[in-house]
Every structure is written in structure tokens, then in C-alpha cells.
Amino acid sequence: VTGVETLIRDPYAVYARRILRLESLRPIGAPAGPQERGTAVHAAIERFEDGDDPVLLSALLEEELRLAGISPERRAAERERLLVSVHALIAWFNERRARGGAIHREVRGEFAIGEVLLTGVADRIEIGAGHAAILDFKTGAPPSDKQVASGLSPQLLLEAAMLAEGAFAGVAKAETTELVYWRFGNAEPKPKPLEL
């Protein structure tokens, strides 16, 4: 589902990667960048599950950032910067837990559309009585409501369509009632529900 946005915005990039099998190479010795940071943050949140210990989440973030190749100096700066997000996310998890329902983390899905197989991994799906939410963690700026509504950033909408078809392994078919981007790691970490 993330590749669909690339296909819409830059079809030649998809052609180069999927058809010509060209991959851009990073310079030797290049420092880890935003992609590695984002992957590390996702991995730490996934390992944390819905815990409530800020010390544990901070330790997981430190470990994943180290494994991603983030330098010790940058990790020291990140440690302080991420602390605000750690507390905000734990408070949010507590609010969500009070709603009840099943929580599915990093769940894979596949949905055939004609001869095309749409695949994706949802960061978090919550299903309760009369409620189904799909959430995506972002370490950069999430797309605007307008970008999502226009189809330029279709990730969560495609995941909602997959959920409606029961395409996620081990997750009951459901109509999505809430789509949320959760920005983690900036000065004002918070969920951003989509209003379409």
C-alpha cells in the first residue's frame, strides 16, 4: 500500500525499481538517515506493545536506534527529544485501552484486485464494539487530510478497504470508523485523526 503513493506521484521510480530492478546505493560510510530512524522507532513501538513503562520504551528506542546505526551523539540528542513522545504515547495507549476491543500490531494483509496483489502491513488495528480504527505511526510529517482525500496519499484508505474485505491475517472483517496518523518524535507528538 505504501508503494501505491509512489506509483501515483512518481511512476518512473516504480518502473526503475520493479521493472529495471535499479536500486539507489547509499555512499559508503553515510550516516543513518530519516528512513533508518523511522524504522527503528517503529520497531521499538512494536516491541513495547501497549506497555506503560516509559523507562522500558526509552530503552527499546535507544537499542533500536543503535542497531539502525544512529551515532552515539545523535542517540543522546534523540533520547531527550523522544522523551516527550514516550510519555504522550503511553498516555494515549492508556486511553485506547479503556475502550476495550482487540488490538492487532504490525499485521500483514493481502488483497487481490484483478491480477494485482495489494499487500501491506498495518501498524495498528483496533476492533471493538461498533468501532474499527487503523493507525499509522509517523516520524515525519503525516499527509494532510486534503492529500488523503484527493488520493495522493492513499495508504490508510487502502488499508481500510483491505480491512473491509477481511484481508488482514487473523483480523475480523470490519468497516473502519477511524483513521489516525500518530506523529512520534517531534516537539508536539500526538495523534492526528483524518477528517474526510
Which key phrases capture this entry?
196 residues, alpha+beta, five-stranded mixed β-sheet, 7 helices
Structural account:
The protein has 196 residues and is α+β, with helices and mostly antiparallel strands. It has seven helices and five strands, in the order H-H-H-H-H-E-E-E-H-H-E-E. It has helices at residues 2-9, 11-19, 34-48, 54-67, 72-98, 145-150, 155-164; strands at 102-113, 116-128, 131-138, 178-183, 190-193. The chain has a five-stranded mixed β-sheet. Strand 1 and strand 2 form a beta hairpin. Helix 1 (2-9) crosses helix 2 (11-19), helix 3 runs antiparallel to helix 4 (54-67) and helix 4 packs across helix 5. The longest helix is centred in the middle third of the chain and has 27 residues, at 72-98. The model has no long low-confidence stretch (mean pLDDT 93).
Q: Over all CA atoms, what is the radius of gyration?
A: 18 Å
Task: Tell me how many strands there are.
Answer: 5
The residue-averaged pLDDT reads 93
Spatial arrangement of strands, main beta sheet: 1-2-3-4-5
Number of helical segments? 7
Distance between the termini: 19 Å
Q: Sheet with the most strands?
A: 5 strands, mixed
Shape designation: globular
The class by helix and strand makeup works out as alpha+beta
Which H/E pattern describes the elements?
A: HHHHHEEEHHEE
Q: Stretches where pLDDT falls below 50 for ≥5 residues? A: none
Q: What is the beta-strand fraction?
A: 15-25%
Percentage of residues assigned to helices = 40-55%
